[in-house]
Amino acid sequence: MTPVLIERLVRSPRTLFLLDGVGALVTALLVGVVLPRLGEHIGMPRPVLRALALTAAAFAAYSLTCAATQPTRWPGYVRGIALANSGYCLVTVAVLIRFAAALQVLDWLYFVGEIVVVCALVTLELRVARAATTDAPTRTTRAPLRRRDRRGATS
Fold it and tell me: How much is the pLDDT for 150?
C-alpha cells in the first residue's frame, strides 16, 4: 500500500470507516441474501450464512457509526474494527474447514476471495492507525507553553 494512500486516510479517517462499513454491508447482503438463494450451488448451511451475515451487519453498523460521529481518538476505533475483521476471517476459515465436505466450488471461491479482501483491508487499517499514532505528537492541538520572564509575566 502506498504511503500516499495511507497519509490520505490518516487525514480523512472517515473515508476508511466508510470503506469498511460499505464493504461490511455488501458482505451482509451477499452472505445473508444472495448466497442462500443460490440453493444447490451453495453447500454452506443457511444458519451459518445467517450468523456470518448478522456479524457483518454489526460490523457495518460500527464502522458507519464511526464515520458519522468521527471520534477524536479514531485510531483506537480503527484498531477495533481491524481486530473484529481479523476474527471474522478466522471464524470463516474455521467454518470452511468444518463444512469442507459439503461445500461447492462457489462456496470456496466466494469465501476465499472474501478472506483475501478483508485481510487486505485489515492490513490497510492497521497501517493507517499506526501512522496516525506515530504522527500524533506532531498533531497536538494544545497551546504552546509560554515562557515566564523574571517578573512572572508570560511572553
Answer: 63
